[in-house]
Amino acid sequence: MSAGNKRGAFIVMEGLDRSGKSTQAARLLERLQRADARVKLLKFPDRTTGIGITIDSYLRSESELDDRAIHLLFSANRWELASSIEESLRAGSTVLCDRYAFSGIAFSAAKGLPYEWCRAPDISLPAPDVTIFLDITPEKAKQRGGYGEERYEKEEMQRMVREVFQRIGSETSREQRWVVVDAGQDIDLVTEDIWRIVEPLVSGVLGPVTRLWETGSNTSIIPS
C-alpha cells in the first residue's frame, strides 16, 4: 500500500477496570455502523482462543500462573490476532479494540515486573492511530456494579495500574495519539467526547500501519 492511499483507522480504548470501556466500545461500534463505516470490534484478552481460555481461567482465579508467564500469555493472545488486525485495516475497515498492549504493561508493571521487560513482548504489534484512555479514580470505579469479580479488581492495584497508564500516555509518540477522557462524568458525555475524537477518522487514515515502539518504522507485519 502506498502512503497516498487511505486505510482503516485503528482505535484502542483503555482504562481501569469498571471505567466503562466495554459500554463505550459498544456505543462507538453502533455509531460507526450508523455512519456506514466498516468496523470490527476486538476485545483483549480474546478469551475464545486456546491461549485466551487459559487467561480466562486465571482472571477468574480458577488457576494460578507465574506473573511472567501470564504476561507472556497476554502478549501471545494479541499476537494471535496481529496479522488479522493489519489485514482488516489495509482492507479499509476500522478496527476498534477494547484493551490492547498498554493494559498488558500497566497491569504487569503494577505487580512489580520491570516496565521495559513488560513492554518488550509487544514491540512491533500494529500501532493504534489513537488510544482513548477512559480515566477514572479507583474510588469511583469501586462504586460501580460488579467490582471485585475478577483478580485485579482491588482498589490499591487499580491505583498502581493508573499510575503506569499515565506513564505510558506521557511516553506515547505524537503520531500514535493518546487522548484522555474523563470517565467519571455522565455516560452520555463520555460517549460524545469519544465521538469527537473518532469522527475525523471515520473516512480513513493516510499512510501505512506502523508498529508499536518502533520509531519511524512503517514496515507492515504482513507482506504487501
TrEMBL record:
Residues 14-194 form the Thymidylate kinase-like domain. One of its GO terms (molecular function) is dTMP kinase activity. GO terms for biological process: dTDP biosynthetic process; dTTP biosynthetic process; dUDP biosynthetic process. Coiled coil: none annotated. GO terms for cellular component: cytosol; nucleus. Keywords: ATP-binding, Kinase, Nucleotide biosynthesis, Nucleotide-binding, Transferase. SUPFAM superfamilies: P-loop containing nucleoside triphosphate hydrolases (SSF52540). Its EC number is 2.7.4.9. InterPro entries: P-loop_NTPase, Thymidylate_kin-like_dom, Thymidylate_kin_CS, Thymidylate_kinase. The keyword Oxidoreductase does not apply. It is an enzyme of class 2 (transferase). Transmembrane segments: none annotated. Pathway: Pyrimidine metabolism; dTTP biosynthesis. The keyword Hydrolase does not apply. Belongs to the thymidylate kinase family. This is Thymidylate kinase. It comes from Gloeophyllum trabeum (strain ATCC 11539 / FP-39264 / Madison 617). The lineage of its organism: Eukaryota, Fungi, Dikarya, Basidiomycota, Agaricomycotina.
